[in-house]
Write the structure tokens for this entry.
Amino acid sequence: MSQRIKVLKTYKIFINGKFPRTESGRYTQLKIDNLPIANVCLSSRKDVRNAVLSARNAFESWSSKSAYNRSQILYRIAEIIEGNKSQFIEELILQGEDSKKAILEIDQSIDRIIYFAGWPDKINPIFGSVNPVASSHFNFTILEPMGVVGIVAPEENSLLGLISSIIPVILSGNTCLAIVSEKLPLCAISLAEVISNSDVPNGVVNIITGSKDELAPHIAQHMDVNALGINIDNKELKNKMFFQASNNLKRVVDVSKYNIEDSNFESPYIVKKFMEAKTTWHPIEKDFTSTNNY
Amino acid sequence: MSSKIKSLNYNGKWDFSSSIESIENLSILKEYQLFINGKFQKPVDKKYFPSINPTNEQQLTRIAKAESKDVDLAVNSARAAFNGQWGKISGKERAKYIYRIARIIQEKSKELAIVETLDGGKPIRESRDIDIPLAAAHFFYYAGWSDKLKYAFPNKTPKPLGVVGQIIPWNFPLMMAAWKIAPALATGNTVVLKPAESTSVTALLLAEIIKEAELPPGVVNIITGDGSTGNLLVNHSDVNKIAFTGSTEVGKSIMESISGTNKRSTMELGGKAANIIFEDAPLDQAVEGVINGIFFNQGHVCCAGSRLFIQESVYDVVLRKLKDRMQSLLVGNPLDKNTDIGAVNSKQQLSTIHKYIDIGVKEGADIFQLNCELPKSGYWCPPTLFTNVSQSHRIAKEEIFGPVLAVQTFRTTQEVINKANNTPYGLSAGVWTDKGSKAFNLAAKLKAGVIWANTYNKFDPTSPFGGYKESGHGREGGLHGLSPYLNLE
């Protein structure tokens, strides 16, 4: 009996819940130890623009879901990864990680999602406020999502880093597009497959592979992106993005300041950085005829 | 339809006996110096610029212009104070200094109000009842936070940032200084503040108050000058944070300047706020709110309700009421306690407003202006309203910063939400309806940092203020006004 021929996986990008190839038709061959392991899309500016559009269109429905619902959907992502652990471990190993580290990374990734999945309905009770203004008004401040967030995920920790970049951003109702690790992109696409099966609405997460030098500036300059979460070591590229982000005053969060591997990364403060405070005023009737001195 | 709605008959304009605030006991110096390291100092280059009273175009006083060496001195003295006494004293002690400032402002409130009106042109009624009391309240509020910061940030140990550079506009000179300085001090930072070129005097009176309150030298430094002085402050290498209130254009250039540095920032920038009247709104109150929303402070307000959206079914009646109410506004001497609309802050701003009024007419909108006599000298603009405005008109898109209202209509809730959010700005919005569920729906959907429901242009030190999108980032006021001045990492 001849040996069974393996089915090789085609890694494509993830935009609006679909898995298209890059519109540019470009690809690069991913090699580990000089052996080709997969072809990866070299996405273009057009893909970035499509991803932003898809994220924008998804924003209203995602941000208006109940916090409880978003919580459960995020939990569902973790559940499904747990069931597919072996696939992720294989991919991490294929990308050159040793098996012990791969197991650790997948466990940490799942636990991290579980941690953040609990936050959607707890951010506002802790960080919102009712403000005792001196005039006769009811006045309160809540935190809201910012809108579309452009993410540049770290090169190392290709799975944990990507999850840690995406989950704190979307849990509050933001939608995102993420440029993933350039040299280790495989897990990102498998994560996209999980997300597509986890009741996350289309367009909430968009995942793009390719050259960061080429793609990141397109995100930083895009006028319909509200914020950036960037985890880049390349200082020149980072500074360029900060500069370009000024064109529509994007909020820029430099995630590279945090140690992704450290459990201290798990904090609501990173969630807050991608939220906007909104204060609402409403008059309280002054009723001079009644007394209230019981 | 409109012919059926009768205009109110006032029998012409009501006459008021003038009630002019006395300036007899006021002493304004001929020349004001820089406030650096606890002392009033002449600028190194000995350059001064005039401060003009916009009601008569006369020079009120002259103000020192800080150049590079002066900015260095100010930043160095702020750094020394941060590394020295101010950085060492407890929050409790800091609080007491800040409380002192609040109290002295209250004591001197009359004098401060008059100077604010003379220097900036705003009605005395507003400087007396809003600007100065809010400035004092801001210091009083934040004073109390100084020794309670750890309660504000669960699981964190908040630390001050260091030296903060603060640049403020000319529309609420003293109040903006308070909004900037009070939280910065409460959180343990030291300050270099640059007031706007055309309205520096009350900031320098505040410097005197700070001196009187015996704050350690260098904790607050006030340097005067134009945009070039601000630029020097922004680009100074020993400043840890820039807090800026002003135009979106300048805000963007500041963000470009500080990109690639470790400087933090708060930006409180422009706006083009929607004020929305639904058919079920209490219309008289709504009209009052619209008037206050756009004509308060001559419309020199970043959160001014400059785009009015009226539901079609009540368009005629609201417009009629609005025009009637406009006719009762009193434009003139801002020192007169009856005055509703004072002088436009500067010649330059007046020409910007005129430019936009011309654009509005050229683009085909219908203009309606208050029919009144304007003083012969000074900078004045009558309250102005445009109808027949579309979303693409520049007067509906760009911030005018003057008493110019662009009126549009809508039929459905979804339509007005789309129209209201169709702007790069997102500072504030107003909604008028008697239906609670509708008000909350709009409050949730409007992309703006402050939503006024059945009210407008209300401010309070406990209430966070600041914008979405191109209206800036960070908040001033309230609990949320603390973290922009703290390192929580």
